[in-house]
Write a structure and sequence with these properties.
Blueprint (H helix, E strand, L loop, with lengths): L1 H22 L14 H4 L10 H19 L21 H12 L8 H12 L7 H32 L2 E3 L5 E3 L4 H9 L6 H32 L7 H12 L9 H4 L2 H21 L18 H10 L7 H6 L7 H27 L13 H18 L1 H15 L20 H20 L3 H29 L5 H38 L1
Antiparallel strand pairs: 1-2
Helix pairs in contact: 1-3, 1-4, 3-4, 5-14, 6-12, 6-14, 6-18, 7-8, 7-18, 8-9, 8-15, 8-16, 8-17, 8-18, 9-17, 11-14, 11-15, 12-18, 12-19, 18-19
Amino acid sequence: MATLLRSKLSNVATSVSHKSQAKMSGMFARMGFQAATDEEAVGFAHCDDLDMEHRQGLQMDILKSEGSEEGGEAPLEGDIHYQRDGTGPLPPSASKDACSELSGQGKPKITAWEAGWNVTNAIQGMFVLGLPYAILHGGYLGLFLIIFAAVVCCYTGKILIACLYEENEDGEIVRVRDSYVDIANACCAPRFPTLGGRIVNVAQIIELVMTCILYVVVSGNLMYNSFPNLPVSQKSWSIIATAVLLPCAFLKNLKAVSKFSLLCTLAHFVINILVIAYCLSRARDWAWDKVKFYIDVKKFPISIGIIVFSYTSQIFLPSLEGNMQNPKEFHCMMNWTHIAACILKGLFALVAYLTWADETKEVITDNLPSTIRAVVNIFLVAKALLSYPLPFFAAVEVLERSLFQDGNRAFFPNCYGGDGRLKSWGLTLRCALVVFTLLMAIYVPHFALLMGLTGSLTGAGLCFLLPSLFHLKLLWRKLLWHHVFFDVAIFVIGGICSVSGFIHSLEGLIEAFRTNAED
C-alpha cells in the first residue's frame, strides 16, 4: 500500500508540476521572478482551480485501492481519520498538503523582493493612466480614495492569505488551501461545496475579458489621437488592432509572449517618468485652484471603480504567496508595495491633473503635445498589444476547463483531440472571444467607463467584498473585535461603492452604446 501511495503521489506531483509551470510561464521567468505587468498578473486568475482534479482523483484512487486490497468497502468521508503512524488513509486535507508539498518540489521559489516586483507590476501598470481622470471628477476626495484603496487592498490581501491557513490538532498553523477558489468553496461547504468557486470563476472571466476589451479600446484611442490627420477613425484603429491580435486564438502557451514582459514593464515605467517630467516642466502653470473639495455626483462613482481597478491583485496572491521562499515575509512585502503604489499613484494623478486641469482626458497621454504624443502612444499601443494575450489566454483556459474539460460535469465535448490538437469548436470559441472584445471596443469606446464598470463589479467584489466575507466566515471565532469591525466596515463600504459605481458606469455605457448605435 505504501508503494502504491508513493507512486500515486509521485505521478500527480509530476503532472501538477508540469501544469503549474505551463500556467505560470509568465510569472516565473528564467531570472527567477515574474517580469509581468499589471495586465499580465491577471494571467494568475486561471490558476485558482489548479490541481483540484488531481487532488480529488488522488483521494478517490487511494480510497478505492485501500478498499480493494483489504477486501472491504472504502471508508466514507466521515470515517477517515488521521493517524500519526501513517497507517491509516489520508484525509482530504492531508492528501492535499502532501500533493501540494510534492508538487512544489523542483519549482523555483521567489524572494520577498521578487514577490514585491510582481505585486508592484500588478498595481502600478498601464491602467494608472486613467487616474488623473478620476481626480478630475473627485478632486481631493479622489486623492483620499487612492490612499484609502491602497490601505484596504493591502489589508484584504493579508486576510485572504490568512484564510488559506488553519490550526491542526497540534496547534500548528498549516496551509490547507491553495487558491481563491478553495477559500470560496470552503465558505460555501457543506451545502454548496462548489458554489463559491463558480462565483469566483465567473468574476475572474468577467475581469479577464473586460481587461482584453480595455486593451483594444486603449489601442484604438491612442492611435487615433496620435495621428488625428489620418482619415482613420478610432473604430478603424480598433479593427486594425484586433486583426493583429487574431493569432492569439492559436496560442498554445505564453512562452514566446512572456519574453517581452520585462521590456514592456520597463518601457511603461519610462513612459510614466516622461509624463511626470513634462508635468514638472510646467509646474509654474499648475492650476491648484482647479482641485475641488466637492465631487461630481454623477461621474465620481465611476472614478471609484477606476481607482479600485488599478489596485486589483488579490486574485493571484495565493499563488504568489505559496511560491515564496519565506511566506512569513508576505505581510511586510504587501506593506511596502502598497505604500509605494499609493505614493506614486497619488503623485502621478495629482501632478498630471494640475498640468491640464479641466482638459484632462480619459487617457492622460492624449494630453501630451503632438511632438511627443505619437512616440509615447506607439510604445503604449505596443505594450497593450503584447499584454493582450495574457488575460485572453487565461480567460480561454477558464472557459475551456469549465465548459469542455470538467470531467462528467462538462457542458460540451472536450475541445482537444487525443493528439492534443485543438478541435474546430475550440478554435471557434477563441475566435469568437477575440471578435467579442472588438465589438465591445467598437460600440463602447470609452476607456474610463469600461474601467469604472470593471472596477465596481469584479474589482470591488474580489478585492473588498469577498475577502472580508470569507475572513469572517472561516476565522470569526479567532478574530479580535477590531478585525471584525474592519471586515464589516470594508464589506459595507465596499458594497455601497460597488453598487453606486456599477449603476453609474452602466448608465454611461448604455447611453454611449445608444449614441454609437444611432451613428
